[in-house]
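Worked example 2:
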Amino acid sequence: MDSGRENNIESRVGLHDENINTSEDEELSVDGIFENEEVPSWTKQLTIRAFVVSFVLSVMLCFIMMKQRLSFGIVPPLNVAAGILGFFFVKTWTKTLEKAGMLKQPLTRQEITVIQTCVIASSGIGFSGGFGSYLFGMSERAANQQAEAKYELDYKNPELGWMIGFLFVTSFLGLFCVVLLRKTMIIDLKLVYPSGIAIAHFINSFHTLGGEKLAKKQVREFGKFFSFSFLWGFFKWFFKAEDDCGFSNFPTFGLKAYKYTFFFDFSATHVGVGMICPHIVNISFLLGGILSCGILRPIIETRKGDWYSADLEPRSLQGLYGYMVNS
């Protein structure tokens, strides 16, 4: 009986090792396809079609990013979306030219990398540049919404000149730091860069037969759910007469709880973000909302006239409204 059990264990171990070797062979086969492929020159990497697709995707994803930044505060990673959509658009472009007999240069992996880099850089500027938070909050128009006395140094109106300089400094600061560490950390020490390796494997898989089919399926699913989200938003628009009504501000827990911003937002975008984000992030947002709006805000309201003046305007940052804005 012991010998039979040992044989069973050995067979399981052998099967496990075989599965590991198979997965390693499959992983190597994806990268091995392009191992001996010559890297094209920079003129074949920085193509006009790559920059055109990058511009279109940058505009589209920046709108999505700004919508998420202003309404929810969480922006999910756009690397996968940029890679899939970039491959789909350029592949459609090249196939159309190929059928017309006008294709001069086939699609390369480097073009997809250029597209993804440009799109991520553009959307990153929209996120880290402060467009959804402080950049336009410094304007005179935003300052006029407050009840406090305003001086010229209290605001700065957005202008193209200083905004370009500001974004140039904030965007290239990280690049200057990375260039100094690149040779030591990546070339000399050969440290593994997980995000870069994952993206490289992701782009390589597009140029295999199975990867191309998977990319097409992902684009179809993306279009399906994008259409559903758009139609649902259009349907909600019919019931929205003001900012505080409709399905976006549905008082699920009653009007008393609605006063403390406890309501349900029937937004397909928020549902999607919740599915993408880890559970720990969603739970922390839920507990933070309960603690901030359900416990601390009522306590601060009872201290009116003690912790802050009772004669303040409703939108004064010196009172309860300031806590609501900063929380």
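The radius of gyration is 27 Å. DSSP finds 13 helices and no strands in the chain.
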